[in-house]
Amino acid sequence: MRDAETAAREAAATRWRGDRRRRPRLAPNVISGLVGAIGVVAIVGGYLGSTAPNPRVPAATSRAPAVVPDATAVVRGAYQPELGPFALPWIWLSDRGSLAVQNASGRPGYVGLLAASLRRPRIVQVGDSPRRTVATAPRAYLIGPLTLRAGDIPIRVTPGAERASQVDRRRTSVFLSTPVVSHMPFAAIPGKGFYPREQSDARRFHWMTDRGVLDLVAPAALDGLATIRLLMWSPAPRRVRIERVPAATSKTVSIPARRVHSVVVSGIRMTAGRGRVILTSDASTTGQRDSRRLTVQLLGATRVR
């Protein structure tokens, strides 16, 4: 029998697979019933960047490189985070919201995130960034350049919010998740198959299930091949297959136990600034105090060229 977490993930994914006529009818109340099934309190805590130690993750060893990004961000809106597409925590904005940047440099940078707009496309502007149109279907976006200053950076949305649904009186506009800060015009955004960001000692990371989707976003003018570097960690030796999409070519790498491992993946096709890789690992494990099925941690993903 499937466990509650697996059922919840499949249910969440099913709600977002549908024909074109249903996707724009994006109502927050549809997904709120999953809260009890998966323990959303723990998920929201990870999303908000809790610094509480994870009992499954040992302290970083002396061999581990510095992998904490120099800046991180959290989306703040009118409502609390809730379970959304890809079984990740998302936040609804009303007419506006903010991006809380930690360890900001004050230099120009970029923010990659997952976004979807309620019923119709909307224009989103973060701080002094160029405006970006967000469609109704959830997908990854790169926003910038913008000044990455400390504190809350305003997010403006037009057209404004509207009533979520007949049974949900909240006024909502866009749904946002998983912000990734970058000082270069590129971001790799963990999506389906990854858990919200966590932190243990000096490391921030996303746990992966057996299979995880990593969306790559860059300026729309980028067409061609890209090379990225992934930093991964595993509690036990693992073999991870990395598939390039849409080229359908792959490579398999071995991840040693309890050591941060760097993997370079070349030949990724970028079309109009978008690309994707899919990571598939061998057998996952669970722990006494963590019932999630886990394989490897993704600590970072950067573009090499």
List keywords for this structure.
305 residues; Jelly Rolls; 44% strand; globular
Protein model, in words:
- This protein is mainly beta.
- It contains 4 helices and 22 strands.
- The protein has 2 domains: 4-38 and 71-182, Sandwich (Jelly Rolls), CATH 2.60.120; 187-303, Jelly Rolls, CATH 2.60.120.260.
- Strand 2 (82-83) and strand 3 form a beta hairpin.
- The radius of gyration is 19 Å and the shape is globular.
- 38% of the residues are buried.
Secondary structure elements and pairings:
Elements: H1 4-15, H2 29-32, H3 35-38, H4 40-47, E1 72-76, E2 82-83, E3 89-92, E4 96-102, E5 108-117, E6 122-126, E7 132-134, E8 139-147, E9 151-158, E10 162-163, E11 171-172, E12 174-182, E13 187-190, E14 198-200, E15 203-207, E16 211-217, E17 224-233, E18 238-245, E19 249-255, E20 261-270, E21 274-281, E22 297-303
Antiparallel strand pairs: 1-4, 2-3, 3-12, 4-9, 5-8, 5-12, 6-7, 6-9, 10-11, 13-16, 14-15, 15-22, 16-21, 17-20, 17-22, 18-19, 18-21
Short description:
The chain has 305 residues and is mainly beta.
